[in-house]
Recover the amino acids of this structure.
């Protein structure tokens, strides 16, 4: 049977549910391997990431960055009035960028050119049995293999007055900025929106049950980010015991929460929650296919196989690390395991990630706490203020922390706060994937003056501490062995 015949018959080697980064990657990889493929997306291709997640949120961060840059104009001899924010225009720009990204990718045309049967904006699909799904219009598709990449959604607050709480998706519907907002949840999404709104002049309150903001990041990142956000005027309440209720009075919302053993109240114009991202399971009728779930996610093994041998899952719906790059990698592995009978394991700790807050933060690998539990480690922390580029650009806030195994000299993790942090950490990721020792990283000649060169400073500090670089004994007795960007190993050995 030819590809066209198979598509006409609605029978496919692989059916992929979900048209975000994971789903598109899965469909393309399956087609590369010669399979007949159907891709089903209930809304628009591109998923949350393109349509109301990473892409438009990054536009907000860009606008906020432009606002912050104006604060330095006078320092650099530039005379211009302080800008004001037209939030409606900011959101227009965000939507324009979403359209531009769609236009650039041309996903549907690309998929169809490759003879992938693409069902876009068709509503919810549900399993009839383990081999068949039914679309909202009654159309039935049969598949030999399935890859479920249906993503997730923002968890709602189940409290009195919870109907007044926004998710991040509601921001795109605004026409004006609120004068004040309480953001519940201090993970990546909560902190990014807190930073953006604060820069736009909104009074921001940030709350979390966790004992620190950005609770999955290295503790040094959380500590500095807390300090910086507070310095910028954000009111932070961590370790609260719960959000109790929300009362609406005209345009004012009264948010009641318990902290330090007593109930407190804050009046704001808006409340946004970023308190979890459960999988999109409700409409799939997974019971009919026999697919097991755990809490609000599809249960998979290390090969990304569900409880049904021919059904795999990838991306946010698995409840593992919820990143675009992770979703795409999982999707590729799932398809190859399904079609090539491979047993690739989804276990990659070298995943760079971060947030476009002010300042930025980023990380890869283990936190210092995690690393200390696994091995004897050595740690270097280099402040951004030591970098000439940071002084030149007037952005001295931040640090780079490099964590290295004392025995193997391999890098276990890196954590960065400061200008271009998300870009800087990519360099460490490359070194970790390439299994470079810290002394090898120390030998790299970084361009000057750059922020990425902070990796070289941290690596050279550790190379000295590990005594793989000869230095005189009196030098080791110094309390602060500062390393200059221009120092090279030949000079150190002289």
């Amino acid at each position: 049977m030819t590809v066209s015949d198979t598509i006409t018959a609605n029978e496919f080697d692989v059916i992929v549910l979900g048209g975000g980064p994971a789903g598109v990657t899965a469909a393309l990889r399956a087609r590369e391997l010669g399979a007949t493929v159907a891709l089903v997306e209930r809304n628009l291709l591109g998923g949350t990431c393109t349509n109301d997640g990473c892409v438009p949120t990054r536009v907000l961060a860009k606008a906020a960055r432009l606002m912050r840059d104006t604060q330095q104009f006078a320092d650099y001899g530039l005379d211009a009035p302080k800008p004001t924010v037209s939030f409606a225009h900011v959101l227009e720009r965000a939507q324009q960028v979403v359209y531009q990204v769609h236009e650039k990718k041309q996903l549907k045309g690309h998929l169809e050119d490759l003879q992938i049967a693409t069902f876009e904006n068709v509503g919810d699909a549900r399993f009839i049995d383990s081999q068949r799904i039914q679309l909202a219009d009654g159309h039935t598709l049969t598949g030999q293999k399935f890859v479920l990449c249906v993503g997730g959604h923002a968890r709602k607050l189940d409290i009195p007055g919870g109907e007044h709480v926004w998710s991040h998706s509601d921001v795109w519907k605004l026409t004006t900025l609120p004068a004040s907002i309480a953001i519940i949840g201090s993970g990546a999404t909560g902190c990014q929106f807190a930073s953006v709104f604060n820069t736009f002049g909104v009074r921001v309150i940030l709350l979390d049950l966790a004992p620190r903001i950005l609770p999955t990041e290295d503790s040094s990142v959380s500590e500095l980010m807390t300090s910086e956000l507070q310095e910028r005027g954000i009111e932070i309440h961590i370790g609260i015991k719960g959000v109790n209720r929300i009362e609406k009075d005209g345009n004012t919302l009264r948010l009641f929460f318990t902290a330090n053993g007593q109930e407190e109240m804050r009046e704001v114009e808006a409340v946004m929650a970023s308190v979890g991202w459960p999988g999109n399971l409700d409409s799939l009728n997974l019971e009919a296919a026999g697919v097991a779930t755990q809490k609000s996610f599809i249960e998979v093994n290390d090969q990304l196989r569900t409880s049904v041998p021919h059904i795999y899952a990838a991306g946010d719906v698995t409840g593992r690390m919820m990143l675009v790059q992770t979703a795409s990698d999982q999707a590729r592995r799932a398809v190859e395991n399904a079609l090539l009978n491979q047993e690739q394991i989804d276990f990659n700790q070298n995943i760079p990630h971060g947030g476009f807050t002010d300042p930025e933060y980023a990380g890869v690998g283990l936190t210092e706490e995690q690393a200390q539990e696994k091995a004897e480690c050595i740690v270097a922390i280099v402040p951004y203020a030591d970098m000439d580029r940071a002084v030149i650009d007037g952005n001295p806030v931040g640090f780079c922390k490099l964590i290295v195994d004392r025995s193997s000299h391999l890098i276990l993790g890196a954590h960065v706060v400061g200008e271009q942090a998300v870009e800087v950490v990519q360099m460490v990721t490359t070194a970790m994937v390439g299994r470079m020792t810290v002394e090898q990283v120390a030998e790299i000649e970084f361009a000057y003056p750059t922020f990425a060169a902070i990796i070289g400073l941290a690596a050279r500090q550790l190379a000295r501490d590990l005594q793989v670089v000869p230095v005189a004994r009196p030098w080791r007795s110094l309390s602060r062995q500062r390393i200059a960007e221009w120092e090279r190993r030949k000079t150190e050995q002289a």
Notes: The radius of gyration is 25 Å.
